[in-house]
Design a protein that fits this description.
seven-stranded antiparallel beta sheet; 17 strands; 6 helices; four-stranded mixed beta sheet; alpha+beta
Length: 486
């Protein structure tokens, strides 16, 4: 058996300690047939050598691949093991004497029978192949050499690495669950937002039957200073719903300044705008003085204007005024044309014609007293016209009762002034009459004419004879304060 294994004196992958001439092995490590060649050109088989003792001096081995039985192909790792093609046709070589190798002790106790395969193209018959044994490493300590990448141990050097038929898989990327969660939340929010927008703009879920609601606004015109109506029916005609379900906004309308303004009527989601025109077409109001003239005296229209007024006055009928001045003593109404800026109006002035020359006025005023349901203080006064009759100053038979209200609350005074400017009647403490305002003192005066018969009944005929008798009665008997003014 040892002789059969000792064909060429060395094991595949090993090195003979006794060097063999190089003509027995080519440069690629492929064993070339050595031995005698018969007459038919076929190389005689060489007996297998005995196993080599794995104690030779380490050298850089040339590792031929042994021939193995054919197996199913498997995927090969990137680093293939070198192999030797033993199936190629062998070329005849000249006979060269071969030195018999020195037998060496076997490495493995197990003997492997040789497996021979015929060489393709061989001449003269099959040539036995080398036994299918694993070569013994040609170094003393396998662990002293770094293992070749792709092999599990040094014992498998010289054999084909295991093949894998499964395709290489790329390493799985670690998923980022946090990013995925954020993206999902953003998509959900975007969907909710779009759905809300669609419902509010393209459906009538919130405005049921709003398409049947119709609002027709009216263009209004009001006078300067007029109060705005709060009745929505004055501003618009609404169909398809009850007007109670709608609202009116006039916040942009200023009724105290001429101009064009907009108001809004809203029913659910539907709203319409209308126009309000504030025009200053009110009559020009002019405060006038009462003029006292003696018979036959001259009179100018400007004498009826208050001091500091910019109103221009002229008589509507000047001949009528002359008639009053030449007639009997008494009180007359004079028609005047008042002009201020671009406005004009016709007003009435009060003319008092006296039998004698006017000397002045005696005004006697009571003590101040409270007014019910008001913060104002009230005084009551009597105004007597005094004329000159020769050497005596006598009563001119013209008198007025005057109530004066002085306010400590500016708000109440302004409210009365606003009503007066709007042409409304002024009544304080149930007293009405000819009204005048004093902005500096925040006072309102209401005057009423009193006839001679009323005065005689109240004060007596003897009291009303002269200036002195009137003054004595009011200061001594009634406790009034009396002043004389021209």
């Amino acid at each position: 058996m040892n002789n059969e294994n000792n064909n060429n004196g060395t094991v595949l992958g090993g090195v003979n300690p006794n060097p063999v001439p190089t003509n027995g092995v080519d440069s690629l490590g492929t064993p070339t047939p050595v031995g005698p060649v018969n007459s038919e050109g076929v190389v005689n088989p060489i007996p297998n050598p005995e196993p080599i003792n794995p104690t030779p001096t380490p050298v850089e081995p040339t590792m031929p691949s042994p021939t193995v039985p054919p197996v199913a192909p498997e995927p090969v790792n990137p680093i293939p093991a070198p192999s030797v093609n033993l199936e190629g046709p062998s070329q005849p070589m000249p006979q060269t004497p071969v030195q018999e190798p020195t037998p060496v002790p076997p490495v493995n106790p197990t003997e492997v029978p040789p497996v021979g395969q015929p060489l393709d193209g061989a001449v003269g018959g099959p040539v036995p192949l080398q036994p299918n044994v694993e070569p013994t490493p040609a170094y003393t300590n396998p662990q002293a050499v770094n293992p070749t990448p792709g092999f599990e141990s040094s014992n498998v050097i010289g054999s084909n690495p295991p093949m894998s038929f499964e395709p290489e898989k790329a390493p799985k990327k670690k998923s980022n669950n946090k990013k995925v969660f954020i993206i999902i939340v953003l998509l959900v929010l975007a969907g909710v937002g779009f759905g809300t927008y669609y419902v509010l703009n393209y459906t009538n879920i919130l405005t049921k039957n709003s398409s049947s609601v119709n609002i027709k606004t009216n263009d209004l015109e009001i006078n300067l200073g007029s109060e705005l109506s709060t009745n929505i029916a004055d501003y618009a005609t609404i169909t398809g719903t009850d007007a109670k379900n709608c609202s009116l906004s006039t916040i942009n309308v200023n009724a105290n300044e001429a101009g064009v303004y907009e108001y809004t009527v809203t029913c659910g989601e539907m709203h319409k705008n209308g126009k309000v025109t504030v025009v200053d077409n009110t009559e020009l109001k002019v405060a006038l003085n009462t003029v006292y003239k003696s018979k036959g005296a001259n009179l100018e229209a400007s004498e009826f204007a208050k001091t500091g007024s910019s109103v221009k006055l002229e008589f509507v009928d000047s001949s009528e005024v002359e008639k009053y001045l030449s007639g009997n003593a008494g009180t007359y109404t004079v028609k005047l044309k008042a002009t201020e800026d671009s406005k004009t109006s016709e007003v009435e002035g009060k003319l008092v014609v006296l039998d004698h020359e006017l000397k002045g006025f005696l005004i006697c005023t009571s003590k101040e007293q409270n007014v019910e349901n008001s913060n104002a203080k009230m005084t009551v006064g009597e105004s007597f016209v005094i004329v000159a009759d020769g050497t005596n100053n006598i009563f001119g038979n013209i008198a007025q009762e005057i109530h004066t209200f002085t306010f400590s609350d500016v708000t109440e005074y302004d409210a009365l002034l606003e009503k007066y400017n709007k042409g409304e009647e002024i009544s304080i403490n149930n007293i009405t009459g000819e009204v005048s305002f004093n902005d500096e003192e925040k006072s309102v005066t209401i005057a009423n004419d009193k006839s001679v018969s009323e005065l005689t009944t109240e004060y007596g005929a003897e009291t009303l004879k002269t200036y002195s008798s009137i003054r004595t009665h009011f200061t001594t008997n009634l406790g009034y304060t009396c002043k004389f003014s021209k």
